[in-house]
């Protein structure tokens, strides 16, 4: 399973979250993530400041990693 750090509600702390990834599709890129930054946008999303959060949530979009696989397209 894949692992991430998730929040389960707007006031909760981060905790380890394991989940299954779907199969790679034609336009996908599989990246093994080594580092991830958390920015102010991620904090607003995790705290549901914009009323659009879906939990559990694994925030973070500023990543560093290695491409392991690419889809056919």
UniProtKB/TrEMBL annotation:
Keywords: Metal-binding, Oxidoreductase, Zinc. Pfam families: ADH_N. Residues 26-73 form the Alcohol dehydrogenase-like N-terminal domain. Signal peptide: none annotated. It comes from Rotaria magnacalcarata. This is Alcohol dehydrogenase-like N-terminal domain-containing protein. The keyword RNA-binding does not apply. One of its GO terms (molecular function) is metal ion binding. InterPro entries: ADH-like_N (IPR013154), CAD-like (IPR047109), GroES-like_sf (IPR011032).
């Amino acid at each position: 399973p894949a692992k991430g750090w998730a929040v389960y509600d707007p006031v909760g702390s981060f905790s380890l979250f394991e989940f299954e990834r779907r199969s790679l599709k034609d336009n996908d890129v599989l990246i093994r993530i080594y580092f991830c930054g958390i920015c102010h946008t991620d904090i607003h999303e995790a705290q549901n400041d914009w009323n659009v959060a879906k939990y559990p949530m694994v925030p973070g979009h500023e990543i560093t990693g290695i491409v392991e696989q690419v889809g056919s397209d």
